[in-house]
Amino acid sequence: AGADGAGRRRLASDAVHRVAQIIHDRYPQPLTVDQLADAAGLSRSYLAREFRRRYGMTMQMFLRRRRMEAATQLLRTTELPIKAIARQVGVDDLYYFHRQFRQATGATPRQVRQDPVQRKSE
Question: DSSP of 57-86, one letter per residue?
Fold first, then answer.
């Protein structure tokens, strides 16, 4: 039974890693926990628990962090309007984007754009 448990744990670990990769690659798209659980072949609750155990955050937090990292990069390297950047990273609501960005980075999108050495996202 111990070997079976280790095998299951390994499969779950691989599935959790796959889900993190999906989030990393497809962050601009709407992603739900149900879709991710289907992709991983795990139940929603088991995936959520294992993901949090491995990464120390929920899948939604991981997705939000990835989106804000991408937004920071775009703010520093392009002249795209902030609204276009928000849309490009998968956030259609500009107010929500501003709130999430500030929460993630401690700065507003405009501050990051005006001062490229302004706080980096965490």
Answer: S-HHHHHHHHHHHHHHHHHHH----HHHHH
